[in-house]
Amino acid sequence: MPITETPAQVLDCKGLACPMPVIKTAQAIKTLEPGQVLELLATDPGVEPDMKAWSSRTGNELLAIDRDGDVFHVFLRRNG
Amino acid sequence: MWTDEGEGKVLYVQTHGVSDPGRSATPFFLAASAAAMEVEVGIYFTMYGPTLLQKDVVDKIGPKGDQGLPLSHFIKQATDLGVRLYVCQPSLELNDLAIEDLIDGVEMIGGAAFNDMAMRADAVVSF
Fold first, then answer.
1. Rounded Cα distance, B17 and A55, in Å
2. pTM of the model
3. Domain count of chain B?
4. 3-state per-residue secondary structure call for chain B
5. Residue A79 zone, left/alpha/beta (φ > 0; ψ -120 to 50; rest)
6. Is B66 a domain residue?
7. Cβ distance B11 to B122 under 8 Å?
8. pLDDT at A1 (0 to 100)
9. Arithmetic mean of pLDDT over chain B
10. Residue from B83, B74, B100 nearest B21 by CA
């Protein structure tokens, strides 16, 4: 499903290994208002299962994960 | 001790010390990941584990030896996210250490408190 909303913030974690994308995402999403969208860019190959687990645990909504070459684009909506 | 303020509780146990640097950092990585999931996290250092927390050691060792970041970086990453660090007196004595030799913020507990934390945790992961 394509994401039509413009993300409130783009978090570039390309080149960072586990657990940094998770940690930085957790910190970044707290700076957003509820309902706003964060786009995470990551190259860590474990980011897809990690973001599924993280979002289901924290209640933030995982909207989509798109892959563009080595880069995963993860779209998350802040809960609340 | 647990505050029950998180979405769950995970307790890690680190038994390895400075003689095996490759085993030093992973508990901190996993603990930081759990804390980022809004889970309450503790790491209990026993057997040789307390040797990793010495003030004059944390900047000198790292998981990949001379390459990469020192252990202090990974400890701070975890504690900044709310991970709490625990030791017990007998394992300090085993390593000829006192609590004053360790980095700030390490809490002293005993066997009863450890077992209570373990029984109340959602998961206990031992290294």
1. 34
2. 0.88
3. 1
4. CCCCCCCCEEEEEECCCCCCHHHCCHHHHHHHHHHHCCCEEEEEECCCHHHHHECCCCCCCCCCCCCCCCHHHHHHHHHHCCCEEEECHHHHHHCCCCHHHECCCCEECCHHHHHHHHHHCCEEEEC
5. beta
6. yes
7. no
8. 57
9. 94
10. B74
Give CA–CA dist A29/B37, Å, rounded.
12
Residue B4 domain flag: no
Domains of chain A: 9-77 (3.30.110.40)
Please give the interface size between A and B, counted as residue pairs whose CB atoms are below 8 Å apart. 33
Question: Residue A23 is nearest to which of B8, B38, B81, comparing CB atoms?
Answer: B81
Alpha-carbon span B94 to B91, nearest angstrom: 5
Residue B31 lies in a domain: yes
> Is residue B18 situated within a structural domain?
yes
Task: List the CATH number of the domain containing B117.
Answer: 3.40.1260.10
Using an 8 Å CB-CB cutoff, list residues of chain B that contact chain A: 7-8, 29-30, 32-33, 36-39, 77, 81
Tokens of B87: 């030791």
Domain containing B37: what range?
A: 9-126
Per-residue model confidence as pLDDT tens digits over B50-100? 999 999 999 999 988 778 899 999 999 999 999 999 998 899 999 999 999
